[in-house]
Amino acid sequence: MAGKPAQPNDNGARKDFMEPEDYFMAAAVLSARRSRDPSTQVGACIVNQDKKVVAVGYNKMPNGCEDHMPWSRSKGEDAAAAVWANGGDLTVATAAKVAAAAAETKLDTKYIYVCHAVLNAIMDKNSADVKGCSIYVTLFPSNECAKLIIEAVISVSRYERSRLSL
């Protein structure tokens, strides 16, 4: 018989299996793929103390709304991103232009319509209690999502990447 002989405590179980934390984050990543947002796909997975998935969510338009809503980012946000890409030289005049562009296009952006992944997951929990659960999110939660996590008494929050990496 070829191969390495079994060690006394080796029961032959696989050693290259996926750890639960990796599995739950992978579920959040897979959920994010359901998002139709062309620029930011976010997923969330809520897990109870028994390591069972309670709910998953992704960023999407509210139920009953069509996905042809405006998915674009604001002109102000695009202008701000361009400033930071060019070394972050933000003058008072440039800041005023960015703010004006953001104000004029607010209704033409996704931000006032889209439901974040954390909100979607908490609302999707059916009858399950999320108190004491853990949540795995592909992007650091927004301030509104952080408030939802606290209000839902979700005890552990893990995220894959920060908003600064966008």
Number of helices: 5
CATH topology of the largest domain: Cytidine Deaminase, domain 2
Write out the strand line-up for the largest beta sheet, numbering strands in chain order: 2-1-3-4
Overall strand count:
4
Instruction: Give the averaged pLDDT, no decimals.
Output: 79
Assembly of the depicted chains:
single chain
Q: Specify the overall morphology.
A: elongated
Give the N-terminus to C-terminus distance in angstroms. Answer: 52 Å
Tally of structural domains: 2
What is the CATH superfamily of the largest domain?
Cytidine Deaminase, domain 2
What is the H/E order?
A: HEEHHHEHE
CATH class division of the largest domain: Alpha Beta
Largest sheet: 4 strands, mixed
pLDDT < 50 runs, ≥5 residues:
none
Instruction: Estimate percent helicity.
Output: 25-40%
Strand content: 5-15%
Radius of gyration, taken over Cα atoms and rounded to an integer in Å: 21 Å
Which second-level CATH architecture of the largest domain applies?
3-Layer(aba) Sandwich
Structural class: alpha+beta
Question: Layout of SSEs?
Answer:
Blueprint: H1 20-32, E1 43-47, E2 53-58, H2 75-85, H3 92-104, H4 117-123, E3 134-139, H5 143-151, E4 156-161
Helix pairs in contact: 2-3
GO molecular function, one term: zinc ion binding
Binding site for Zn(2+): 116, 145
Cofactor: Zn(2+)
